[in-house]
Design goal:
Elements (H helix, E strand, L loop, with lengths): L1 H25 L6 E2 L5 E2 L1 H17 L4 E4 L11 E9 L1 H6 L5 E8 L2 E9 L4 E6 L11 E4 L2 E2 L12 E4 L14 E4 L3 H9 L5 E4 L4 H13 L3 E4 L21 E4 L5 H8 L8
Parallel strand pairs: 3-4, 10-11, 10-12
Antiparallel strand pairs: 1-2, 4-5, 5-6, 6-7, 7-8, 8-9, 12-14, 13-14
Helix pairs in contact: 1-2, 4-5
């Protein structure tokens, strides 16, 4: 099984490095168009999507694929890759060098491996989280192949909490931390995994925004909380996930759930 995980990690590293290098050439130069859900897309998103799908088809021909740009229906395969070819397209088009290629690998509907590469920051996160899948292999969460862990600190005005553009209404009440807004859903949550922030919230993420981060955050010791009653995973075979949102709170430790969840729980009303 370790040979399989070595293959998965090398595939993600090599593929995102190759695609990221090309995307840097297009950075800040492309005109974006608006999709039905209001998000932006460029020809670079579509190119990267096609390149990643083609690479998976060659290297893991028996695996299914679900992506932001093309395939939204969860397939009837034990293994499935979930892809966001450019997480942070608005940043990418506006010349802000914080954007990511996000890839999650699911087994029977639940993520067990995540890889997120930020080409211009030269940051690559990955992690393993097997849950009750029965699988075994490497463990932990990593940034540039070095182990990372969430912070054990208590909230203060010198600590950070990350918001998304659709969650700023939480600031109508006093908040226990300084606020940051990253513009990249996966990186928003991964800053908690890396110990840089104590928490983060995404009000309307899609499944490709959170699949990889779901693994890495938990592997780093964090807590991933769905703000709706229904669990996010396992995904359902045949379900179209193109229009589903999954309001999400991430915190660095269990003790902080009671601190932050009451402040952001109302964001579940933005879902679907």
């Amino acid at each position: 099984m370790n040979d399989f995980w070595d293959k998965v990690l090398y595939f993600c590293q090599a593929t995102t490095d190759r695609i990221g290098s090309q995307l840097i050439n297009d950075f800040g130069k492309l005109q974006a168009t608006q999709k039905e859900d209001g998000s932006l897309v460029t020809k670079a998103d579509k190119w990267a999507d096609g390149e990643i799908r083609a690479a998976i088809a060659v290297t893991f021909p028996d695996h299914g694929i679900l992506t932001e740009e093309t395939e939204h229906i969860f397939p009837a395969t034990d293994w499935c890759w979930i892809i966001d070819p450019i997480d942070g397209t608005t940043n990418f088009t506006r010349g802000i060098p914080i954007w990511a290629i996000s890839i999650g690998l699911l087994y029977r509907g639940t993520p067990i491996f995540g890889f997120v590469h930020l080409p211009q920051l030269r940051h690559s996160f990955h992690g393993y989280w097997y849950g009750d899948s029965g699988l075994t292999g490497p463990t932990g969460a990593y940034l540039n192949n070095q182990p990372i862990h969430t912070s054990a600190d208590s909230p203060s005005k010198s600590h950070l909490f990350n918001l998304c553009a659709r969650s700023t209404s939480v600031l109508k009440k006093p908040f226990p931390c300084k606020i940051r807004m990253i513009g990249v859903a996966s990186y928003n949550l991964l800053l908690v995994a890396a110990g840089a922030a104590l928490g983060g919230v995404e009000a309307t993420p899609k499944i490709w925004d959170i699949a990889a981060a779901w693994v890495i955050v938990q592997a780093a010791g964090g807590v991933f909380i769905s703000l709706t009653p229904e669990p996010v995973f396992p995904l359902k075979v045949g379900q179209d996930y193109g229009s589903y949102s999954f309001p999400t709170l991430v915190v660095s430790q269990t003790e902080l759930v009671s601190v932050f969840k009451p402040l952001v729980a109302f964001l579940s009303q933005k879902a679907n």
